[in-house]
Structures are given as C-alpha cells and as structure tokens.
Amino acid sequence: MEIASVPISSCSKDNQKIYQEWFNYADSDNDGRITGTDAIKFFAMSKLSRPELKQVWAIADSKRQGFLGFREFITAMQMVSLAQAGNEITLDILKTTEDLENLEPPSMEGLKALLNKNKVSTNNCELELNGDSRPQPSPSTPWFASKSIKKAPLTSVTSIIDGLERLYNEKLKPLEVTYRFNDFVSPLLTHSDFDAKPMVMLLGQYSTGKTTFIKHLLGCNFPGAHIGPEPTTDRFVVVMSGPDERSIPGNTIAVNAEMPFNGLTTFGGAFLSKFEGSQMPHPLLEHITFVDTPGVLSGEKQRTQRSYDFTGVISWFAAKCDLILLLFDPHKLDISDEFKRVIASLRGNDDKIRVVLNKADQVDTQQLMRVYGALMWSLGKVLNTPEVVRVYIGSFNDKPVNETAAGPIGKDLFEKEQDNLLADLIDIPKKACDRRINEFVKRARAAKIHAYIISHLKKEMPAMMGKAKAQQRLTDNLEDEFAKIQREFHLPAGDFPSVEQFKEVLNSYSIDKFEKLKPRMIQAVDDMLGYDIPELLKNFRNPYE
C-alpha cells in the first residue's frame, strides 16, 4: 500500500506560464510568497464571495504557513476556476476533477489591463537603466556591503516561521546564552532548525521492521538500507530529499549549515562515524524526513557499551521530531533495560509517541489478542502516564497479508489500522507549522524556568568564603532548591528538568560564575509569549476570517 504525499496540482506548461506571470504580479515584494494582504487585492478580481475565498485559501494553505508559494497559488487558481464554473469548493475537488491539467485559468476582472500597464512601466525602467541616468555607486561603498542590522517590525516578516525565528533571535536567544541553556538543555537554534522539514523517527529492537517500514512508505529502497533478521542497521540514518541517490557521511551532514543537525557535533566523532544521511529524489521526502535508528539492544548484547551516548542522541532527535514510532513485533515484546532508558529519554515528548505492533500477520487472531494485551502490560510499566498510548496493528511491508494466520477479520483490521497510521503520517506536513509553534512555546517556558534555577543557585552562593561547600550543598539538595523556586515564582512542577540530568551537568560548572536574575530578559520572554506570538498568529491567519 502506497502513501500519498501532499497533493501537488497538475497543470499544463502553458497554464503554468500564465500563472507565473500572475504570481509575479500578485507578489508585491518579490519574495516568492503571497501573503494575506497581497491575496485580498488579487483574489478580489475573481468576484467570488468572501466565504468561497476563505475556503480556497484554507485548502491552498493546508500547511497553515500564512502564505502561498507558487504551487499553492496554482492550487488556489484552479479552485477559483472551478468555483466560477459553479462547483462547490471541497478538500477533494482537485482529486475528483477530470482533465485538471488543461483546466482553463479563472476569469480575473481587470487583470489583463493591470498586467499590460505593469509591462509598460517595466519597459520604461529598463530604458532608464540602459541610459546614463543610472546612479553611480559611492567610492566609499564596499563591494560586499552587509545588510542593515536595523530591526524590522514583526509585520515585515512574510510567514509564521520567519516571525518565530526573528522573535527567537531578538528575545529568547539572549536569555538562553546568558544562562547557558544550550549547555544544560538544548543547543541554540539556527536558521536550518526553523527551515527544516518535519521528521519522523523510528525506534525499536533489531528486526522489528524499522527499515522495511520506511521502504514500504517510499515504495523503493533507499541508499544505505540494509534489511535482515540480524541487527543490520548499526547507525542512525536520516532519509531525506535530494537531487540524486547517495549516502552522505555524518561529519559532512553535521557541519552543513543548511541541515538541522549541527547540534549532533556535541556527541563527538564516535557518534558521527555511526551517523549518515541517505539522500534521494522522492515526492514524499519533499515533505517528510525519516530517521532510521539502530536496533535497541536486549539480552547479553546490551551489556556491551556503545561508544557514544545512545540515549542522549535519541533524546536530541526526539526534541526535533514531529512523530516518534515505537515498533514491536509479536515475538519481541520484552522491553530491555536499554529500551527502558530510551523510552525514559523521550520524556516531555509523550504527545509525539505512537506504538506500532508490526508483523501482526505472523500470529492468528487469538494469539494476536494475547500479544496485544501483553504489549499494553509491558508499556504500562515504562510509560508513566495514566492515558492509554495509541497502538497501530498491522504488517507494514510490501508482502500481501498472510490470510492463513490472520484470517478475514485480521486482514480487514490490518487495512483499517494501516489507513489510520498513513493518515497520521500524511497530516504531519499540514500540522508542521502548529507543531513548530508548540515546540517554540515549550522551549521558551523551559528557558525561563532554567533562568530562574541558575539565578537562584547564584543567589544562594556566599560572597566570599566557603563557596565549594555551598556548591556541594546546593547540588546535593537540588530537588529542595527546585521546590523553593517553584513556590517563589508559582511555576508548575511538571515543567522543571530532571534533577539527575541537571545535577550531572551542574557538576562541571562553578555556580559562582553564573549570572544573577535579569528581570528585563524575563519580561521580554513574557511579552513574546503573551503578545508577540498571538499577534504573529493573528497576522498570518486566513485573510478572509
């Protein structure tokens, strides 16, 4: 069963040329994006009603980015054309329309005259540039003048993600740097972190079908894929979109500024030698990146220590991923000590976790019922939540379902479960922007609490004598100090970091060197959460709401 990527409207080359000219005209600031203000002016020429245009925008901007790129613009124009022909605008209208490629562009009243006028003014500008009236550059102007560092207002950004990046650099990053948030919790964010595609990570013991699962979704093999009953995947493999099929070494990926993996350099060369990128052109990979992981060890094998911090790497990826799939098969339901540590490292990302009981057609219906019960019992011991985790049951590979074991009821169940999981995956790109906002707000709150902790510990240190003893006392009683901070600033206990992990990092620092509390920085983050982010979302909502 194939997974469909986010639909891309088909359009003839002749129509694409027309839409490109329209897009260039509508894009008033030539940044390759049509925002709500541009859309209201341009779409008004279609003479459709406001509710119809609201639906057109909602479907075209399915990822809720707050703008339309060229592809989304074509989708919008095709829906406008269908609406003008009397069709009802629905999510499936483009899928059900026959000969969509040759659909005539919509009627846009007055657009032809505006385009001709624009051409005349463009030609006049070119004539002036070809003459002697062109302004000469000043001799003092450097060849490579840097961009102005003057802060632009939030209204000048052209997408929600751009707005979040600006807010991070202006308000949140200074707080993180001052209180060393990057050393204790998470590395500083870069442009590539904001620009990255949604990621899905697969975890599980060896031979539970992680690599096969990715191959099944892609419908083909990917570079570096090794499948077998033994532990074949011995490294972290990031499967991503690229112009050609090739494997990229871990060190190369980690230093590439265009990829969001720079933070992995902190795990050292031992890890980077076990990390690689698998690049290939594929429509699904244009929207989602997959992270294939080494099989979690069990039995005698888990006594052999890995050469890098395995759970630390898993925790790093978990914070970046949009979805985490825990794979089990009916014959590997035991959760080893290493697997427990891995699941514990996912703390704080519980909403991203989905459980997949793979290879379920290897047992009959009665056995499957018992296997499911045993799996839920095992998970209940390691997932410390009162809620029941979502478990998908199926056989995610290219082979037909084994009806001899599964029976007709099992086959029907597997197909429904597969459809539900694939629907969950298809929704990831659409929810990516909302997820990015959610993660950003979580990070801002964590950074604020971290600042309170660091400044409190600094305040408890003596001015002159006995600093070493005071630091030891504070470290030993860290849980009590957390409780004091919680009471003083009225903070929720669930937002505080793990005491043991914090203590481990704290031991390598001198508390006396920490910064005191800077209320202005805290206030800036509070203003960002209470005013700037809601204002940003308001600016980039559906312009017809």
Describe the structure.
- This protein is of the alpha/beta class and 545 residues long.
- Helix content is 49%, strand content 8%.
- The protein is built from 20 helices and ten strands.
- It has helices at 13-26, 36-43, 50-60, 70-84, 93-96, 111-130, 160-178, 181-184, 191-195, 210-218, 250-254, 268-272, 310-320, 337-344, 365-382, 403-460, 467-476, 478-489, 499-506, 519-539; strands at residues 34-35, 67-68, 199-204, 236-241, 246-249, 275-280, 289-292, 323-328, 353-357, 391-393.
- An eight-stranded mixed sheet has the order 5-6-4-7-3-8-9-10, sandwiched between helices. A two-stranded antiparallel sheet has the order 1-2.
- Helix 3 packs antiparallel against helix 4 (70-84) and helix 7 (160-178) packs antiparallel against helix 20 (519-539).
Secondary-structure topology with pairs:
Blueprint: H1 13-26, E1 34-35, H2 36-43, H3 50-60, E2 67-68, H4 70-84, H5 93-96, H6 111-130, H7 160-178, H8 181-184, H9 191-195, E3 199-204, H10 210-218, E4 236-241, E5 246-249, H11 250-254, H12 268-272, E6 275-280, E7 289-292, H13 310-320, E8 323-328, H14 337-344, E9 353-357, H15 365-382, E10 391-393, H16 403-460, H17 467-476, H18 478-489, H19 499-506, H20 519-539
Q: What string, H for helix and E for strand, traces the elements in order? A: HEHHEHHHHHHEHEEHHEEHEHEHEHHHHH
Helix count equals: 20
How many E-type strands? 10
Instruction: Give the terminus-to-terminus CA distance.
Output: 38 Å
Largest beta-sheet details: 8 strands, mixed
Mean pLDDT: 82
Low-confidence residue ranges: 1-9, 133-152
- Beta-strand percent range: 5-15%
Query: In which range does the helix fraction lie?
Result: 40-55%
Q: Please tell me how large the radius of gyration is.
A: 27 Å
The largest sheet has its strands arranged as: 5-6-4-7-3-8-9-10
Shape designation: globular
Structural class: alpha/beta
